[in-house]
């Protein structure tokens, strides 16, 4: 064999044993670092806060029969200004978020164990005789809730109430208060409403409560949350008004006379879950949708009922878990980083025969939680593809952070959720790489969980209209529709 033929033969052998590596194209997006950091500074500026408080709220969206305005909590309450810097505010938010996740996972565990119903001991109850709408972000109180502006009673009085897709029971603080936390609006007075009516212990609504008691044939309720917060009082019916778009009578809700915990600012809570006592179920809505503005924003958006989803929606199956009717599960099948699907078994995101597993979309959880295997795969792929970013130490529950203090804009790998049916939802960079202080430290806004339940949080939902078609069992995601 001639030398030239031998060299050709050798090169073919070498190529077959050690293939030449090629760099596949990585899908990227641009993160505006400077704007994100400036927003953290503006949020804690008292002068700007006062100026923006006087701005005219947006007009109601009249395309929906029933509409509430949604606001971030920081836009209606000044408690966040008590934090000396953005880092301490972020730590408070993450602490609250951890309690929220504990509440959701514990509630599921109790439902699977068949221990989700109980009757209160009335001796431990308080002595009662002694006693379309905007949505805003609730981050300033160390929580990720958003507030809807809701009309209650006849004549209607308007209140800021937390929206919660992980709960069914609607409730608000009521006079007389045995103990009430501070809220932005005056406390609701049942004596001032012509449409207020107590529910009897034999009513269907009372029988549907998870925790209930009876006193003088009046139904009592109690709801507890993962951080130790709770509300206790009478279970009643009231008229709910949707701005100028109409009202619905006889909606069952809790009139809380003892309300303790971290609900500062809001008058109560709207349950948007899948149970029979949730607001969508009671008003017989065929669908509802919301769009969450940035958690540090003072802008507003809407919570809408019975409105058609935008034409550019990415759709996924809306799934249910027979063990717990409250949670709204989505047909998540995988995640992509840089345009490349991760090696995550689809079974991780599926509900099994025992009721464990699955992925829910939750308005009250801030940071998306993934089973450890899925999270590790996401984190490792992101770090590998983000080699242009300067790594730094972790922060609270975040273990993947970057020092972007010298940057104005940076290129980052894309992150997408993949759904059953082959649909994919690409996230904006600000939905997964967020500032944790005002000095350029950004962290990957996902966290691992030991629970079988995955949770898509509101950081990943911001700027996207999330819709639930209850009649067709479809979840829709429409970017840029706030």
From TrEMBL:
Descriptive protein name: Peptidase A1 domain-containing protein
PROSITE patterns linked to this entry: ASP_PROTEASE, PEPTIDASE_A1
Top-level taxonomic group: Eukaryota
GO biological process terms, semicolon-separated: proteolysis
SUPFAM superfamilies tied to this protein: Acid proteases
Signal peptide: 1-23
Transmembrane segments: none
Keywords carried by this UniProt record: Aspartyl protease, DNA-binding, Hydrolase, Protease, Signal
Residue span(s) of domain Peptidase A1: 146-478
Similarity comment: Belongs to the peptidase A1 family.
InterPro entries in alphabetical order: Aspartic_peptidase_A1, Aspartic_peptidase_AS, PEPTIDASE_A1, Peptidase_aspartic_dom_sf, TAXi_C, TAXi_N
GO MF term list: aspartic-type endopeptidase activity; DNA binding
């Amino acid at each position: 064999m001639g030398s030239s033929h031998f060299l050709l033969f050798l090169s073919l052998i070498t190529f077959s044993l050690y293939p030449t590596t090629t760099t596949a194209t990585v899908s990227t997006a641009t993160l505006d670092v400077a704007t994100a950091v400036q927003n953290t500074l503006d949020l804690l500026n008292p002068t700007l806060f006062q100026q923006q408080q006087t701005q005219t709220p947006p007009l109601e969206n009249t395309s929906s029969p029933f509409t509430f305005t949604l606001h971030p909590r920081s836009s209606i309450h000044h408690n966040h200004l008590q934090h000396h810097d953005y880092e301490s505010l972020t730590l408070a938010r993450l602490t609250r978020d951890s309690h929220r996740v504990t509440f959701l996972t514990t509630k599921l565990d109790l439902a699977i164990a068949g221990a989700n119903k109980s009757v209160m001991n009335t001796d431990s109850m308080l002595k009662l005789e002694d006693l379309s709408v905007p949505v805003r972000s609730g981050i300033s109180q160390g929580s990720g809730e958003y507030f809807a502006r809701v009309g209650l009673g006849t004549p209607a009085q308007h209140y800021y109430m937390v929206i919660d897709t992980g709960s069914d029971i609607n409730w608000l603080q009521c006079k007389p208060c045995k103990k009430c936390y501070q809220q932005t609006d005056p406390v609701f007075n049942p004596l001032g409403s012509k449409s207020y009516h107590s529910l009897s212990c034999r009513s269907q609504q009372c029988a549907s409560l998870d925790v209930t008691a009876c006193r003088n044939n009046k139904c009592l309720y109690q709801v507890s949350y993962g951080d130790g917060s709770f509300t206790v009082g009478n279970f009643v019916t009231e008229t709910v008004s949707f701005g100028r778009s109409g009202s619905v009578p006889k909606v069952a809700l809790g009139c809380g006379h003892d309300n303790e915990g971290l609900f500062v600012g809001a008058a109560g809570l709207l349950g948007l879950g899948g149970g029979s006592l949730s607001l969508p179920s009671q008003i017989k809505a065929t669908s509802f949708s919301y769009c969450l503005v940035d958690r540090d924003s003072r802008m507003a958006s809407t919570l809408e009922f019975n409105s058609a989803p935008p034409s550019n929606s990415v759709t996924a199956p809306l799934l249910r878990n027979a063990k717990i009717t409250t949670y709204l599960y989505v047909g998540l099948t995988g995640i992509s980083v840089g345009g490349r699907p991760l090696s995550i078994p689809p079974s991780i995101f599926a509900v099994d025969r025992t009721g464990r597993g699955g992925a829910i979309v939750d308005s009250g959880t801030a940071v998306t939680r993934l089973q450890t295997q899925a999270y590790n795969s996401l984190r490792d792929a992101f770090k590998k593809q983000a080699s242009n970013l300067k790594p730094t130490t972790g922060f609270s529950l975040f273990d993947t952070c970057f020092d972007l203090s010298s940057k104005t804009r940076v290129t980052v790998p894309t992150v997408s959720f993949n759904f059953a049916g082959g649909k994919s939802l690409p996230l904006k960079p600000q939905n997964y790489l967020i500032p944790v202080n005002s000095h350029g430290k950004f962290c990957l806004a996902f966290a691992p969980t030991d629970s079988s339940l995955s949770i898509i949080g509101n950081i990943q939902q911001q700027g996207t209209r999330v819709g639930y078609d209850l009649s067709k069992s479809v979840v829709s995601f429409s970017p840029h529709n706030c």
